[in-house]
Amino acid sequence: MATRNRAKFIGATLESILVQATEEVEIVVLDGASTDNTEEVIRRYQERFPRLRYCRQETNMGIDRDFANAVDLADGEYCWLFCDDDLFKPDAIQIVLETLKNDYALVIVDSEVWNADLSQLLQSKRTKLATNKVYKVNENHLLLGDAGDYLSFIGGVIIKRQLWADREKEKYFGSCFIHMGVIFQQPLPGDALVIAQPLISIRYGNASWLSKTFEIFMFKWPSLIWSFTYLPDSPKLQVCLKEPWRNLKTLLHFRAKGLYTEREYDVWLKPRLASGWARLVSKAISHFPGRTTNLLAFVYYSIFHRSSGRLLILTDLANSQFCFWKIPMRYRRSVGAPGMVTAGTRLQSGVSKKCE
């Protein structure tokens, strides 16, 4: 587990692990120089669980390096790459331990999704699989097509530590998805399993950052997925377009969520768009009234979009700075309106200092 400034949440995460952890389980927490009382919280749990190892670091070097360092510190045969604010569902560890007796190279467990304070279930399961599915050697393409979209979430990945150690990692530092690089850089050496039963409760809308969301999901994520040249295009297209930023509907979607502004256009799209017409339209979308876009998107996804992820999208729209029923951001300070939490990826952290 990699963490930074999550004292408010990591206690509940650790509690969900400790109540079902067996002698076969160790916990490794890598702290990227937290400035809150994260260490104090973790130390209290160390008193209850001696096999909880805490490593505090000096500087913030990024989530990819942190998970790589955490796996290096682990002693177990398998490593469950878990997030510092999510929860294990009851019996999750026992189910996984029984599954690992089959010597899988990789196990992916499904999740359910709740809002940030865990008061509302937003999605009962994330993968599209109704039952467990085994992927044989040389079936990475099927695994990517079935689970690739879900795997933007790192917390469902359980991987053999030796497999992780044997694979290239440096080239994926900075990608925000090092686990995807490790899994899909070449065919897996053994079978993989997706457990269709949700064993994790994701705390959605609790992101540590927001400003990089457009860059990550318009450029970093697609670039990574499409870098696996040995895999055919069809499963990659099930995960994402090669250049999603060229899709006007996608830009409108990001505009409605408050994640596409003139800044994103200037930094990311303007240098890449050769056509004057494409530049004009893309820039116009970045200036389109945010609250109007948010309202139209809310109506569209409420009435016409009936996928299992609909509530996640509506949550993002509700958390947007452009949310049509909330006070505009520029008026918040004067009237004392609360800030908003936002959905996205997890955290940043750093280089090792001390481990206990």
Order of H and E elements: EHEHEHEEHEEEHEHHEHHHHHHHHE
Unreliable residue stretches: 329-353
User: What is the CATH class name of the largest domain?
Assistant: Alpha Beta
Identify the CATH homologous superfamily of the largest domain.
Spore Coat Polysaccharide Biosynthesis Protein SpsA, Chain A
Strand content: 15-25%
What would the principal axes of the Cα set say about the shape?
A: globular
Secondary-structure content class: alpha/beta
Q: What is the architecture of the largest domain at the second tier of CATH?
A: Alpha-Beta Complex
Radius of gyration: 21 Å
Describe the structure.
The protein is an alpha/beta fold. The protein has 15 helices and eleven strands. It has two domains: 2-209 and 346-355, Spore Coat Polysaccharide Biosynthesis Protein SpsA, Chain A (Alpha-Beta Complex), CATH 3.90.550.10; 243-335, no CATH class. Helix 10 packs across helix 13. It is globular and about 60 Å long. Mean pLDDT is 90; it is low at 329-353.
